[in-house]
Amino acid sequence: MKTARTWAVALTGVDGHMVEVEADISNQTPDFKIIGLPDKSLGEAVQRVHNACKNTALDLPRRRLTVNLSPASLPKQGAGFDLSIAVAALAAGGALSSRSIARVVHLGELGLDGRLRPVPGVLPSVFAAARAGFDTVIVPWGNEAEARLVPGIEVRPAASLSQVAVWHGAEVDVLEADPVAAAAVARERPEELDLADVVGQENAVRALIVAAAGGHHMMLSGPPGAGKTMLARRLPGILPSLTEDEALEVASIRSLTGDSVQALDVMPPLESPHHSASVAALVGGGTRSVRPGAISRAHRGVLFLDEAAEFSRVALDAMRQPLESGVIEVSRAGITALFPARFQLIVALNPCPCGNYGVRGAECVCPSLAIRRYSTRLSGPLRDRIDVELHVSRVSASQAMVGDRTGMTSEIARALVIEARERAGARWRGTPWLRNSEVPGARLRQLDLRIPADARAPLDRALERGTLTLRGYDRVLRLRKTGHSRLSRRKRLAAPWAQ
C-alpha cells in the first residue's frame, strides 16, 4: 500500500480553502473512488483522469485506488480538481515523485486526451494558496495571466498532463497538445463616456457629482428620453480609480463568473441587469455551484437599475441587506457563500407605466390606480436607503438645438470627486470609514448637535410626525456632510457652475 498527497483549492464565494488530495493504492479488486463530499461533476473526474492518464502513456495501476479530499466536511464542486487527483494517483502508483508534488498546488480540468483546460476562479484560488504559504502553483496555460496577478508565488502554466508529469520526475514524452485558450472572452473595456455630452441637465450633473463624492445611492425619476440612463452610465467615469487591492477584489469576482482576467482594470465596474432579472441573477446562486450575481459583480463600482419599477418586488427588496452591510450571503443546501457587495446604487424609473404623467404637452393614458401602484413598486425601506432623489425633465428643443451643455467634463468632475473624498478621508482619519455614506447615524447625530436648533427644527418635526424615519434623518445628515465639502478658490474660478 502506498499513499501520496498534493493540494487543490475549494471555493465558497470568493474565499478559497486548501484541500489536501490524498491517493491510496491497495492490493484489492481494481476500483477508483473519490470521497470527501464531491459533487456530480467532481465525481465524474474518475473517467476523465483515467482516460487522460492512458492517453499520455501514464497508466494507473490496476488496483484499488481511493482518493480522499480533505477536509471531508467541506463541499467541493467543479472539474478544477482533475489535475490534483491525477497527480496524486500517479504518485501513489510510483509514476511521479511523491516529494515533488507534496508542496505544490494543482488546478485545472483534464480533457480525455490529456490536455489541461482552463477553469473559473483561478485568481481567488491562487490567492488562497499564497495566503496559506505555498510557493508553487500549476495552472492551465489559459489561466496563466490571471494567476500571475498574485504576487509572491511561482506560477507554472501547463498545456497537458504529460508536461506536469515531466516536471514531477516522470520519464514520458511530452505530447504536442495545443494549449486550450481561456475559458471565456475577456471583458471588453466600456466605451469612454463623458459628462460633456450631457445637454441641459445642470442640476442633474451637480447631483451626480455630489453622489459620487460621498458614495451616496441615487434615484433618478422622469419621463423617457430625459437622460436618466445617459447620466447613470457616466458615473463610473467620474469615480476615483480603484486601488490595487480593490482591483484585485473585482478581478477575483470576474474570475468566479468565468471571465478571462488578463490584467487588472482600475475602472470601477458598471452592472446594468435587465428588469426581467430574477432574484438569483441579482444576489447570486446556482444549482451546482454558487456564482456571484449582479450585486457582487458591481462591487467597488455602480449597480444601475434602469426601469426599476419593472423589476420584481422580491428582487428589489433583496438589495436592502447588502446596501447596509456591504456583503451578500447566499445560502444553498449544504453550503453558504459570502460575496462582497459594496456598490453604489443608481435607480431610474418613469413617473407612470406610459411615462407621460406630469409631462407638459404629453398625454398620460394610465388610470390613477395604475399610477399609484407604479410609484410604490419601490418599497419604503428600499427608498429609505437611497440618499439622493432627483427628478429629471426632458430637454427643450431650444436647448437641444443650441447644444446647451453644462461645461462640465468627466475629467473635471473626477478631480472634484477625488478632492472631496480626500477631505472626507482626512475628516474621518482614525476611523474605519472613508466616505460620508459609510458613517453610522449615531456618530453623525453626535457631531451635528452643534447645528443651531432652528436650522434642525424642520428635520426634527418631520421625525416626530413620522414622515421621516431615523434612517432618513441620518441620510440627510450624511448628504449635508458631502454638500458642505467646499472647492478650492482656484477650482471655483475654473468651474463657476459649482458655486
From TrEMBL:
PROSITE patterns: MCM_2. Residues 276-351 form the MCM C-terminal AAA(+) ATPase domain. Pfam families: ChlI, Mg_chelatase, Mg_chelatase_C. It comes from the Bacteria. Coiled coil: none annotated. InterPro entries: AAA+_ATPase (IPR003593), CHLI-like (IPR045006), MCM_dom (IPR001208), Mg_chelat-rel (IPR004482), Mg_chelat-rel_C (IPR025158), Mg_chelatse_chII-like_cat_dom (IPR000523), P-loop_NTPase (IPR027417), Ribosomal_Su5_D2-typ_SF (IPR020568). Keywords: ATP-binding, Nucleotide-binding. NCBIfam families: YifB family Mg chelatase-like AAA ATPase. Belongs to the Mg-chelatase subunits D/I family. ComM subfamily. This is Magnesium chelatase family protein. It comes from Microbacterium foliorum.
